[in-house]
């Protein structure tokens, strides 16, 4: 469905396969990434006031706003000011599941898309899988869980997390990792069978098929 989409900068995790490393891997950040590329901060951060951001969002004419990152919940102060200026929009927040929205932000959120990071992301489990946070999201009916899958064995990790935190199977999406259509389609073939087997949903990467791995899409 068409939505307004806002991508915020900075992340407290560093996934080796991250396809938006330009939001966090600035010059001087030596956290590992498979491309080894760093980005100039000034050229990749557009600074807007909450009112300026609200004006641009409303001009898009959509009913729903998806806020992603980076990790957007690192900027809850600015988010609260922004959301107060777009009270009639439905709000989705994409998060890695390690952080918590304060009550004055949480009350405005209609949906959380929680993407806990598995071992192949390169993040230490102590940083990426925080029991207190996953317990809270598991109990929140607004939360949906999306796991990035590169190998069939990654699904075993998902099953272990599902058992531990009692994620609802119907609220779990598995998404093939990849930044080109051929890789995504190849992984989707075996991943679809595992989704059917375990009662999970499957997420494609439609923007990659339509536009390639390009910014602004």
How would you portray this structure in words?
The protein is α/β, with parallel strands linked by helices. The chain has one domain (4-13, 48-211): TIM Barrel, CATH 3.20.20.70. The chain has helices at 41-44, 50-59, 76-84, 103-106, 125-128, 131-138, 152-165, 181-198, 206-211; strands at 4-7, 64-68, 90-95, 111-114, 143-149, 172-176, 201-202. It has a 7-stranded parallel β-sheet.
Defining key terms:
217 residues; single chain; seven-stranded parallel sheet; TIM Barrel; alpha/beta; globular
Strands, helices and their partners?
Layout: E1 4-7, H1 41-44, H2 50-59, E2 64-68, H3 76-84, E3 90-95, H4 103-106, E4 111-114, H5 125-128, H6 131-138, E5 143-149, H7 152-165, E6 172-176, H8 181-198, E7 201-202, H9 206-211
Parallel strand pairs: 1-2, 2-3, 3-4, 4-5, 5-6, 6-7
What is the percentage of strand-forming residues?
15-25%
Give the biggest beta sheet. Answer: 7 strands, parallel
Q: What is the count of DSSP helices, taking H or I runs of 4+ residues?
A: 9
> Given the helix and strand composition, which structural class is it?
alpha/beta
For the termini, the CA-CA separation is 14 Å
Question: From the coordinates shown, what is the CATH architecture?
Answer: Alpha-Beta Barrel
**CATH homology-level superfamily:** Aldolase class I
CATH class: Alpha Beta
**Rounded average pLDDT:** 96
Helical residues, percent: 25-40%
The structural domain count equals 1
Order of helices and strands: EHHEHEHEHHEHEHEH
Strand order of the largest sheet: 1-2-3-4-5-6-7
Shape: globular
Strand count: 7
Instruction: Please give the radius of gyration in angstroms.
Output: 17 Å
**What fold name goes in the CATH topology slot?**
TIM Barrel
Low-confidence stretches: none
């Amino acid at each position: 469905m068409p939505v307004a989409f806002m991508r915020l900068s900075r992340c407290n995790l560093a996934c080796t396969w991250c396809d938006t490393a330009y939001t966090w891997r600035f010059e001087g950040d030596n956290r590992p990434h498979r491309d080894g590329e760093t980005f100039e901060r000034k050229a990749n951060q557009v600074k807007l006031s909450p009112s300026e951001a609200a004006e641009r969002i409303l001009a898009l004419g959509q009913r729903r706003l998806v806020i992603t990152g980076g990790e957007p919940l690192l900027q809850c102060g600015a988010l609260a000011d922004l959301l107060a200026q777009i009270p009639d929009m439905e709000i989705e927040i994409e998060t890695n599941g390690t952080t918590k929205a304060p009550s004055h932000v949480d009350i405005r959120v209609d949906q959380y898309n929680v993407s806990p990071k598995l071992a192949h992301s390169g993040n230490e489990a102590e940083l990426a899988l925080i029991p207190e946070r996953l317990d809270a999201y598991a109990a929140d009916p607004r939360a949906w869980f999306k796991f990035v899958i590169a190998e069939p064995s990654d699904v075993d990790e998902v099953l272990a997390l599902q058992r531990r935190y009692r994620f609802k199977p119907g609220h779990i999406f598995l998404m093939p990792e990849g930044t080109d259509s051929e890789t995504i389609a190849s992984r989707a073939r075996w991943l679809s069978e595992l989704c059917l087997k375990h009662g999970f949903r499957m997420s494609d990467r439609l923007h990659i098929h339509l536009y390639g791995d390009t910014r602004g899409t």
